[in-house]
């Protein structure tokens, strides 16, 4: 076993030393028939089909090292790709992570990054099975997420139809509110902590994707660019009529609360923020919630989906679509 000098830098370790250290820091997964150390990984695919996605995390664009601990960066990098896999209705299985870093990056930072990657993978039931390293002027992570459909059909953006319910799993507006607080330097107040955490350490409700697929969801998307933008992607894919739900229909109470809190905190510190509580949950990025059609995805209860209701009993409505939500659900019909 190689003992990495955590007081040193990644340049001191060298490329192969860093790869060897990463292979020790990251847990092995029995589904990885061949893991870190060979020219390529081999991952078992019981379904016979593999869901794949790729995402970047670039220092200065998607995170700042003076805002985020290395573990937070690792969790966020993993969550971005794992969320896309789950939004297709698949079970996340593995990540390939390419890391480019400046030579003076501390080894301790790299180890905390690996710990964050591993922790988020554990939440989703996946693991890091391979990757690459390179030198760069700033930290860049390119993450490929892999998943297994477990016998289900993939749930694409293009499946929405008029009359479908629009449901969300996970809170809206918190990540954007957290970014506003970070930008204004209002992170030390206790009330800001959950909003800042939503920006730095997104926690997607991974099981909601496959569960919604099993319940009959007809279209899904990972909300990463804000509800309006991502709902627009679904509407664009389903035809020229799109969704005619006015933006105000999607003003979730927690979104109004988030941006109302941001304004109050800003007033207490004498800061001026360009946030609008009426638009709070709509345009903000890096939300990591699900937006699904025809499924119940109750975001206020931690993203746990439940069945639709038809005739007072759990079941699937006519034409294979889930019935209307009970009053506690947050949904609107696509028109």
Which helices and strands, and how do they pair?
Blueprint: H1 10-25, E1 32-34, E2 42-43, E3 50-58, H2 70-87, E4 91-101, H3 107-124, E5 127-135, E6 140-148, E7 165-169, H4 174-184, H5 193-200, H6 208-215, E8 219-223, H7 227-237, H8 253-269, E9 289-293, E10 296-298, E11 304-306, E12 309-310, E13 313-314, E14 331-333
Parallel strand pairs: 4-5
Antiparallel strand pairs: 1-2, 3-6, 4-6, 7-9, 7-14, 8-9, 10-11, 12-13
Helix pairs in contact: 1-3, 2-3, 4-5, 4-8
How would you describe this protein?
The protein starts with 9 loop residues before the first helix and ends with a strand. Mean pLDDT is 76; it is low at 239-257, 275-283 and 294-335. It is α+β, with helices and mostly antiparallel strands and 335 residues long. The strands form 5 sheets. Strands 3-6-4-5 form a 4-stranded mixed β-sheet. Helix 1 packs parallel to helix 3 (107-124). Strand 1 (32-34) and strand 2 form a beta hairpin. It folds into 2 domains: 10-148, 60s Ribosomal Protein L30, Chain: A (2-Layer Sandwich), CATH 3.30.1330; 157-333, Phosphoribosyl-aminoimidazole Synthetase, Chain A, domain 2 (Alpha-Beta Complex). Helices cover 32% and strands 21% of the residues.
Tags for this model:
60s Ribosomal Protein L30, Chain: A; 335 residues; Phosphoribosyl-aminoimidazole Synthetase, Chain A, domain 2; 14 strands; single chain; 4-stranded mixed β-sheet; 4-stranded antiparallel β-sheet; alpha+beta
Terminal residue distance: 60 Å
What is the third-level CATH name, the topology of the largest domain? Answer: Phosphoribosyl-aminoimidazole Synthetase, Chain A, domain 2
Largest beta-sheet details: 4 strands, mixed
Q: What is the 3D form?
A: flat
Query: Which parts are unreliable, with pLDDT below 50 for 5 consecutive residues or more?
Result: 239-257, 275-283, 294-335
Helix/strand/pairing category: alpha+beta
Beta-strand percentage? 15-25%
CATH architecture of the largest domain: Alpha-Beta Complex
For this structure, what is the CATH class of the largest domain?
A: Alpha Beta
Integer count of domains: 2
Instruction: Give the mean pLDDT.
Output: 76
Number of DSSP strands? 14
Radius of gyration: 21 Å
Helical content band: 25-40%
Total helix count? 8
CATH superfamily heading of the largest domain: PurM-like C-terminal domain
Write the H/E string, N to C: HEEEHEHEEEHHHEHHEEEEEE
